[in-house]
Design goal:
355 residues; alpha/beta; Alpha-Beta Plaits; Oxidized Rhodanese, domain 1; 3 domains; 5-stranded mixed beta sheet; 4-stranded parallel beta sheet; 12 helices; 19% strand; globular; binds zinc ion
Length: 355
């Protein structure tokens, strides 16, 4: 019986990926389609895609598939052919990344979930198939020039922090489900206005646009294929990018640079920077923005406590982890949200304690 999960250490896998000689491409695709037995399908796909040496992160649910993948170029045709043997995925449109060398994932993970996008919607009258109007890059650019339109970023705050469209309303939310009510609230009384929304690859807007129409908004438009496809069209057609900065992506690359604009600042020293990193203390792994100077000063860590822990021998780090109460005070999860630490404040306090 073939193994249906990957059990090799992540550092070994990462090293293997870096040393690999073959070329890969990063693609994403999704489809809302009724899948009655996602668990069985999951195992089939895992076996087939392992044989094709594909990596990535894929979510399956009764409502469809959402996939981010790294596929070897010489297996691309075989991959597409196999995918098309399933009626669910026939001729599914692929979005190709514009940036990077395809080394976006180092293993294959396929998970079965309740929904492919957790939306928190429990309204039985909501019909997600009644989506808004799709706009391509040319149409979106034209529409955004009209100051009467309302531009909505349907992503989380750490995504819009490093890149966004001009004039966009960016919800201060950590998750998509938190965002929907926030945006609805923000748009109260503007049901007749023209709404332009966008997200990373289009999957969130597909649902959000239908939800907004359900809530009485009359003219709901969304960017077809999201920022990923927009970037591709801008490049191919030589258009001006009205999206500025970095398109945050959920893989090893963390971001795809779309324009040279830097919209955010280093969370530690405050100078302009849009480099997302994970804290080098493996027990923390906090996602934050850190400039190269601060990286050197802090050894890639988020706080002095993490610098101290990351410098300990591996064995001692393991012991610390074992003894730790999950979410206990000594663990960095004390932040209200792991995704929005106020590191500048924490560092200030820490320095004042020392002086
Ligand atoms: Zn800095
Ligand atoms: Zn840390």
């Amino acid at each position: 019986m073939a193994l249906l999960v990957n059990r090799i250490d992540k550092n070994v896998l990462k090293k293997r990926l870096q040393e690999e000689k073959i070329k890969r491409k990063t693609v994403s695709f999704y489809r809302y389609v009724s899948i009655p037995k996602p668990k069985e399908l999951r195992d089939e796909l895992f076996l087939a895609w392992s044989q094709l040496n594909c990596f990535g992160r894929i979510y399956l649910a009764n409502e469809g598939i959402n996939a981010q993948m790294s596929v070897p170029e010489d297996q691309w045709e075989a991959f597409v052919k196999h995918l098309n043997t399933y009626s669910y995925f026939k001729d599914v449109p692929f979005k190709h990344a514009v940036d990077g060398n395809g080394k976006s994932f180092y293993k294959l993970i396929i998970k079965v979930r309740n929904k492919i996008v957790a939306d928190g919607i429990n309204d039985p009258d909501f019909d997600p198939s009644k989506t808004g109007t799709y706009l391509n890059a040319v149409e979106f650019n034209k529409a955004i020039e009209d100051e009467n339109t309302i531009v909505i970023d349907m992503r989380n705050h750490y995504e819009s922090e490093v890149g966004r469209f001009d004039r966009a309303f960016c919800p201060d939310a950590d998750t998509f489900r938190e965002e929907l009510p926030q945006v609805i609230n923000h748009l109260k009384g503007k049901e007749d206005k023209k709404i332009l929304m966008y997200c990373t690859g289009g999957i969130r807007c597909e649902k959000a646009s239908a939800y907004f129409r359900h809530k009485g908004f009359k003219d709901v438009n969304h960017l077809h294929g999201g920022i990923i496809q927009y970037a591709q069209e801008i490049k191919e057609q030589g258009l001006e990018s009205k999206f500025k900065g970095i398109n945050f992506v959920f893989d090893e690359r963390i971001g795809e640079r779309i324009t040279q604009d830097v919209l955010s600042t280093c969370h530690q020293c405050g100078k302009p920077c849009d480099r997302h990193v994970n804290c080098k203390n493996d027990d923390c792994h906090l996602l934050f923005i850190q400039c190269e100077d601060c990286e050197k000063k802090m050894n890639g860590c988020c706080t002095p406590e993490c610098v101290r822990i990351a410098a300990l021998p591996i064995e001692e780090q393991r012991q610390l982890r074992k003894g730790r109460v999950k979410n206990g005070p000594e663990c960095l999860s004390v932040y209200k949200s792991r995704l929005r630490p106020n590191l500048a404040e924490i560092l200030k306090k820490d320095l004042s304690l020392r002086s």
